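#structure-requests
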Amino acid sequence: MMDNRNSLSLAIRLSALALVVEFLLAPTSVRSADDYKLGPDSFVQPGVPQGLITKHKWISNEIFPGTVRDYWIYVPKQYTPSKPACLLVVQDGGVHVKYDGDRRVPIVLDNLIHKGDIPVTIGVLIDPGVIPPLVPGGRARNNRNFEYDSLGDRYSRFLMEAILPEVEKKYELVQDPRGRAIMGSSSGATCAWTVAWERPDAFSKVISWDGSFANVRGANLYPSLIRKTERKPIRVFMQAGANSLNNVHGNWALCNQQMASALEFSGYDYWFVLGDGGHTPKHAGSLFPETLRWIWRDYTSPNE
């Protein structure tokens, strides 16, 4: 006869087997983690005018000396020089221009501007800098983490002193910070927040996709800084994945929750959404049209 311990062991194994079978036979309609779908505003729609996208290159001699980067300017069909446009600056711009997966900034802008859901907005989509190799066949060095994850005003100066003056040589932009937004994902989201934190007089709106508010280069300090600093005029949308990164720098889901808690404590106008996904743009991409509507709500254009 089996003793009680063997009987218990067999019962546990049978129970575990039953759970495995139940899982395998479960309906496939049950949503798995990160199974987010794009809505119609994220696809090209018939009859919607498409904005013009032009590619440019910037070689830095100051601020980030020795770096080279591509950037793109999106100009909606509705733009007219006599009416300054609102501004959306996007980090890691190349993946958005190429419509990489769920990152479809120009398409969403086309659709929402056409509907009148958001103001006429020019997009400046910027890649992080790279340092070209010193010898033929050498390897370029990526400057992304230094630019995006560092605290301080270096990147905001780069935008305000280098890129935006170049854009404004050709296009009229709203100068009121309420008409200017900046966004990014991962380290790019940290960068977006840092720019607005340093220059709320230039950007009052932030869109953060699974931001790297961990201790990569000190962004883990932000929750404390937010709590101990007088509230700044920043509106921020934040998304994070419950199954995002968890490494030596920190736990991304927890770091974003700490940020959201600090924003609530300090009375910021914020919207935080915690999904069930990983460190991907799927969830945030599916929310992007509604995010833009929310971030631009109650904005009154000076052209009206």
